[in-house]
Design goal:
Blueprint lengths: L2 H12 L3 E5 L9 H13 L4 E4 L4 H11 L6 E4 L2 E4 L1 H10 L1 H8 L8
Length: about 110
């Protein structure tokens, strides 16, 4: 992975309180896992950014190295890698994800 790709990923991760690297967009997720991740974040009512890895092959490969995690989607909160959709689902079901977001002081979407 090039330093440029690494820098772009780091900039995106650090530029958003909550960031989801996904396939597609929040309005048009391109895989079931990305769709589930979006549903969880929307249900929790937090503001989040997203990066469509299908639009940029360098980012699609680079994010896997950046996090040392082989699959997409990938969730970051305050610059920290949280996990993929399975981990998000587990954390959501136990209430851990809501707690993590609350402790991080993440902005809620305006009602």
């Amino acid at each position: 992975m090039t330093e440029d790709t690494q820098a772009r990923i780091a900039e995106a991760v650090n530029g958003n309180e909550v960031l989801l690297f996904m396939k597609g967009s929040p309005l048009f997720p391109q895989c079931g896992f990305s769709s589930r991740a979006i549903a969880i974040l929307d249900h929790l009512g937090v503001e989040y950014g997203s990066v469509d890895v299908l639009q940029d092959q360098a980012i699609r490969q680079g994010i896997k190295q950046f996090s040392d995690w082989p699959t997409i989607p990938q969730l970051y909160v305050k610059g920290e890698f949280v996990g993929g959709s399975d981990i998000m689902m587990e954390m959501y079901e136990t209430g851990e994800l809501a707690e993590l977001l609350q402790k991080a002081g993440v902005a809620q979407k305006a009602a």
